Amino acid sequence: MLKSPDHFLSESGKSMKRSAIREILKVLQKPGMISFAGGLPAPETFPVDDLKKIVLEILEKNGADGLQYGTTEGDPHLRKVLVERHNRQGLNIGIENLIITTGSQQAIDLIGRIFIDPGDYVLCGLPSYLGGINAFQTYGAKMKGITLDENGMIPEELEKTIIRMREYDRRIKLIYVIPDFQNPAGITIPESRRIRIIELAERYDLLVVEDSPYREVRFEGESQKLMYELDTTGRVITLCTFSKIFAPGFRVGWVLGNPLILDKIVMAKQTADLCTSPFVQKIIALYVERGLLEKNITKTIALYRERRTHMITCFRKYMPEGVKWTEPQGGLFLFITLPPYLDSDILFDKAIKRNVAFVSGSTFFCNDSGHNTLRINFSFSNNNEIEEGVNRLAGVIREEINATQGKS
To answer: What is the pTM for the complete model shown?
Structure first.
C-alpha cells in the first residue's frame, strides 16, 4: 500500500498549494452561515430559461458538431462573435488576436508554464489575486509585491523595484495586474497610470498580464480603456472570462494578445486539455450573438449595485470606529482594513462561530503582510443576509478591539 506519493513529486508538484478560498468554502455548509468569503456570482443572474431554449436548438440543428472535438484555438463562431463585440467597444482586433480557454484561470496557468523558469520573478500588487499567485508559484516563480494606493499599483515603486532587482541580477518576466475592480481590493487603475505601467514594461522589456474578469460589472463612474488597447508594442496579454458576467459553471474564458504569444499558449493548451468544450462554446456564441448577454449584464449590474450600496450602508451603520473599507465602483468585492493591532486570521475563527465568514486579507499578500485586512464579497448574499452578516461581523470586530485594548 502506497503511504505517500511525496517522494515521487516534481519540484512544481511540491510547490503546489491548496487555494485557501476553496478550502474555506468547504466549511461553510453549516446551517445559518452567512458567507462573504467566495467570489460567487448571484444565482439569480443565471439565465436558465434562455439557456434551455438555446441548448435544445443546438442539439437539434448542430448536435454532432457540438459533441465532437474542437480546435484548440476555440470555436470559430464564438471567436468571431467576441472579436466583433470587442471592436464595437473600441478595439481594433482580428480573430488572430483572440483564443478561447477553459476559464481565465487556465490562461494564467498556461502563461506560467510558458514563461516562468524556477527563480524568475513576477511583479504583482500588494494585495493580489490568490489564484494568480499560486499558479505562478507552482512553476517556480518568486512573487514580488508592489504597493497599491487608491489608484492601484504605484508606478514609481514599480520602477524602483525593477531597477533594484536588476542590480542584483533578478530575472523579472511578468507584471501581473488586475486593473478593474481589483481582487481583492476593489480598486480601478486610471488610464494615465495604465499607460505608465505599460511604458515601464516596454522600457525594461517585460510582459504585462492584464487579468480582467470584473471589467464589465461597472456600477458607476467612467470605464477605463483596457491596457491591451493602450499597448503599442504587443506585450500586454489580456485575460477575460464569462464567469462573472454569465455563468461560472461553463468554465469558458478568452485571451487577447499578440498572435506570436497566443500561438505559444495554444501549444501549451494542446497538452493541457486539447480544447475547451465545443458544445458550451456554441451555446455561448448563440447567446452572445442574440444580444442576450448584454441584457443579462445589465440585470447583473443593477443587482450588484444594489447589494454593494446596501453593504456599504450597513458598514456605516454597524462597524466600530477605526475600521476602514474600500467603496468600489464595480466588481464583486470590497476590502476592509482593521486597526493594525488586530489579526484577521484570529478573527476568522471567531466569526465562524457567529455564523459569518470572510477571507483573511493576508491570503492575498505575497510577502506575508496584510494580517489586519479582510476581503468581503457582496454579490452572493441578499440584502437581509448582508445586513445580518455585517452586524455579526461588526460585533466580532468590536469585541476583539475591546479585548485587545483591555490588555494594553
So the answer is: 0.94
